[in-house]
Amino acid sequence: MKILVLNAGSSSQKSCLYEIADDALPQSAPKPLWEGKVNWTQDRGVAEIEVKTASGATLHESIYGDSRQAHVAYMLYTLSRGATKVIGQLSEIDVVGHRVVHGGQDYRHSVVITEEVKKAIARLSNLAPAHNPAALEGIEAIEKSLGEVTQVAVFDTGFHSTLPDAAAIYPGPYEWVEQGIRRYGFHGVSHQYCAGRAAQVLERDLASLRIISCHLGNGCSLAAIKDGRSIDTTMGFTPLDGLMMGSRCGSIDPGILIYLLRQSNYSAESLDYVLNKASGLRGISGVSSDLPKVIEAIAQGNDRAQLAWDMYVHRLRSGIGSMLASLGGLDVLLFTAGIGEKSAGIRQAVCEAFGFLGLKIDLEKNQNQPVDQDIATPDSTVRVLVIHTQEDWAIAQQSWQIMKKNV
């Protein structure tokens, strides 16, 4: 079975092609036959196309045009043409899986995309304005390029649909609940994959583990996972809630927003920009939303960069503490995504705070770029894992499973 995966971002569209046997899923992620990426520059008419194949062929081009769909179609064209050709024709693709950030309350599991599903994704775009519209563009680009091929939506919010009401409902008026205002949680595809992979690495039953999953990238969230199910998480109604992030503020006193609206002539649009684009590491450091650049500034004596680091670590530790309370104990602390996988300093700073649990990390293993590895010492009471998140493979797995059900 040939499975194409599209993972849409606000400024990029990543894609990859897997070939999986019809009879069983492999235990570990296979290497994609083909990987493509469209990066959109500030000039919306220009796109950077990057393609590579399992055999080592590459392509890097700048293309022009006024349609994102056209850019995606060109990227897909490289699947069956030129040096990066890996299939004879696009019709060989059996199913296309899409990461969709927000599925609301209606979509708790992956589904085959219909007109009704597309309308729901569009309707929920006001809750994920940087991502849901991009996913729709990808879906429509596939319709134009591949016609009637089966498409599957894999929702980031789906994994968190198991949150108990006490964790999901905000303490506002009950009318909010009736309006669908509740904690949905995000990064669900990543949290679910990493929890399963952690159980594999440890050779343990996932249902027996209490896990805190730390997805730390430009966007950051925690998930408390018990019996293989999400029971608490830090992101909420939108991806703005929770931890301090690259350029997002995370949780703040809502009274600040009321104050700014009354005293500083902010509009909803300007507040949205400040909270999503000009806060977090970028807003505090004044340097960048990119943690390595903040660390460089700290080395040069930049006090604001040091403050950004200290705040980031403080809020991350606090968030883990709240997840710990929800779980009633901890078997596994796992780190994933760009910062979680690459920043030994963040992992060490976090783990040092939980020594009282008997958690100990091996400093040498932590520094040695671990991948899918336990970096705790043998006598640690908590296993500490660094897991390479593979959202694309998780989407491919769920697409495969839906196709097998529909046979």
TrEMBL record:
A GO CC term attached to the entry: cytoplasm
Top-level class of the enzyme under EC nomenclature: transferase
Binding site for ATP: K14, H215, L216, G217, N218, G219
Pathway listed: Metabolic intermediate biosynthesis; acetyl-CoA biosynthesis; acetyl-CoA from acetate: step 1/2
Cofactor: Mg(2+); Mn(2+)
The keyword Nucleotide-binding appears for this protein: yes
One Pfam family hit: Acetate_kinase
Residues at the active site: D156
Cofactor binding: number and manner: Mg(2+). Can also accept Mn(2+).
Family matches, as CDD domains: ASKHA_NBD_AcK_PK
GO terms for biological process, alphabetical: acetate metabolic process; acetyl-CoA biosynthetic process
Sorted UniProt keywords: ATP-binding, Cytoplasm, Kinase, Magnesium, Metal-binding, Nucleotide-binding, Transferase
Listed EC numbers: 2.7.2.1
Binding of Mg(2+), residues: N7, E391
InterPro entries: Ac/propionate_kinase, Aliphatic_acid_kin_short-chain, Aliphatic_acid_kinase_CS, ATPase_NBD
Compartment(s): Cytoplasm
Gene3D superfamilies, A to Z: 3.30.420.40
Site entry (Transition state stabilizer), positions: H187, R248
UniProt: substrate binding residues: R99
The protein's role, per its UniProt record: Catalyzes the formation of acetyl phosphate from acetate and ATP. Can also catalyze the reverse reaction.
Quaternary state and interactors: Homodimer.
Family the entry assigns: Belongs to the acetokinase family.
Protein name: Acetate kinase
Species whose genome carries this gene: Anabaenopsis circularis NIES-21
